[in-house]
Amino acid sequence: MGAAAIDLLYWRNVKQSGAVFSSVLLLLFSLTQFSVVSVGAYLALAALSATISFRIYKSVLQAVQKTDEGHPFKAYLEMEIALSQDQISKYADKILLYTNTCMKELRRLFLVQDLIDSLKFAVLMWLLTYVGALFNGLTLLILVVVSMFTMPVVYEKHQAQIDQYVGLIRTQVNSVVGKIQAKIPGTKRKEE
Fold first, then answer.
1. Widest CA span of the chain, in angstroms?
2. What Gene3D superfamilies has UniProt attached to this entry (predicted)?
3. What is the residue-wise DSSP string for 95-153?
4. Per residue of the chain (192 residues), what is the pLDDT tens digit?
């Protein structure tokens, strides 16, 4: 994650983080009420209304003041926005690497290369059926966004206490997993 994203999530610049956080939440809440097509169309209409109004305002201002400043968006119209072949290749390589890694991991889990990992995955999928019954995907996305903007700050302020409790939980979970592994034949994990 880049430094700019970390600064946003840790609220280093409160105005910028607040603007991004509220914009994303507004977009997600809009999507709960309207279709993606409607939200996209309304956003495009709002942007178009703003740019047309600004263009007309500048044209009237130029006519009244009898100046010739030209098109108000000239700098943006002349700006290069095309992706280079290198950029496309770099992103395609990253996507390919991620896709291949995911496929290998899913193959490993579904074909039970390691029984314990496959059982953990099965428990996770079983828990996700309950999460899916309680929340739809958009609600989960809203919860993820809220968590992304609140958890880092909470952790930063209460790091010692959180680390202590996480350590206790991790010890308990490892103890239970160890006991389960000891009782299931053929599940002894290799020492890493």
1. 89
2. 1.20.5.2480
3. HHHHHHHHHHHHHHHHTTSSHHHHHHHHHHHHHHHHHHHH--HHHHHHHHHHHHHHHHH
4. 678 888 888 899 999 999 999 999 998 998 888 888 998 899 999 999 999 999 999 989 888 888 888 888 888 888 888 888 999 999 999 999 999 999 999 999 999 998 888 998 999 999 989 988 888 888 889 999 999 999 999 999 999 999 999 999 999 988 988 888 788 776 655 544
